[in-house]
Amino acid sequence: MTGTRIVAETSLPGLRLARRGKVRDVYEVDEGHLLIVATDRISAFDCVLPTQIERKGEVLTALSRFWFGRLAHIVPNHLGTTEVERMPEAVRASADILRGRSMLVRRTEVFPVECVVRGYLAGSGWKDYLATGEVCGHRLPEGLRESAKLPEPIFTPATKAEEGHDENISEARMSDILGGETTARLSHISLALYHEAEAYARGRGIIIADTKFEFGLDPEGQILLIDEALTPDSSRFWPAEAYEPGHSQPSFDKQFVRDYLETLDWDKRPPAPPLPPEVAAATTDRYLEAYRLLTGKEL
Ligand SMILES: Nc1ncnc2c1ncn2[C@@H]1O[C@H](COP(=O)(O)OP(=O)(O)OP(=O)(O)O)[C@@H](O)[C@H]1O
Ligand SMILES: [Mg+2]
Prior knowledge:
The chain has two domains: about 1-105, Phosphorylase Kinase, domain 1, CATH 3.30.200.20; about 110-240, ATP-grasp fold, B domain (D-amino Acid Aminotransferase, Chain A, domain 1). It is built from eight helices and 17 strands. It has helices at about 55-70, 90, 95-100, 125-130, 170-180, 180-200, 255-260, 275-295; strands spanning about 15-20, 25-30, 35-40, 45, 45-50, 80, 100-105, 110, 115-120, 135, 140, 150-155, 160, 165-170, 205-215, 225, 235-240. The strands form four sheets. Strands 8, 9, 12, 13, 14, 15, 16 and 17 form an eight-stranded antiparallel β-sheet that branches. Helix 1 runs parallel beside helix 8 (about 275-295), helix 5 (about 170-180) packs across helix 6 and helix 7 (about 255-260) runs antiparallel to helix 8. The radius of gyration is 19 Å and the shape is globular. Adenosine-5'-triphosphate (ATP) binds near residues 24, 26, 34, 78 and 106.
């Protein structure tokens, strides 16, 4: 049975916590493996909220697994298993907490660049375009409106910032960091992944406006797709039927959360306010609906 119990934060006996992100807790399992635990935490306006979203961690995990399977013909990935029963003993000891929300993955040397692909003009891409007419060195046609579909998807890398916002960089700058050959390969792979995922999702009622991939090198020097893949947390999902350029689009998953927070007199700085139960419940439904639409299955 997968849990309906909310997990806000984990602390697993016998495993070393490597990192606690806004949403995921990452543990070192052994030299070659990490355990990525998706909690039910949610962030909005870059702040983690004090209210959790029931089943969100399950949806993130199941969606990543779905995409890893679907896209493995483009690039191999780090996923070992999401089945706790098949994980090492130290992990199985916490099976009740971890079931449905954890991935045992191959540990890699992470490339320190986020590989973002944008098919639509939103977020920092829209801001950069307004200011300069360009996004990460891509000169775009004049007169594009907010949320416009781009003539073709573009690769818009960013450096990973420990604190605060990532910085958009050009492909030339990425080449200075990773070398031209690796940059060209990551760009090519990222565009191919987006191309396939976007077309698939659009046919199922979801626009993937943009998404962020991470890659790493395994001990054999092979490039692997790592982290989470094509989830609502790493991507902008828009409901396709409501799509209309000229303004910002409702977020498929966080629409109710953002709408509610906008009604408050909150300055968008921590601590964030709690969500009413009905807003949290409606958000759970949106995550489950995203899963259902994309996979054609109930979670
Ligand atoms: N296979 C892997 N090998 C090594 N590191 C990995 C692998 N997969 C993912 N990671 C790293 O695990 C970390 C995941 O934690 P992260 O802090 O991004 O969590 P998060 O919940 O997404 O939080 P945030 O919202 O702050 O990004 C990232 O630093 C990512 O690069
Ligand atoms: Mg992250």
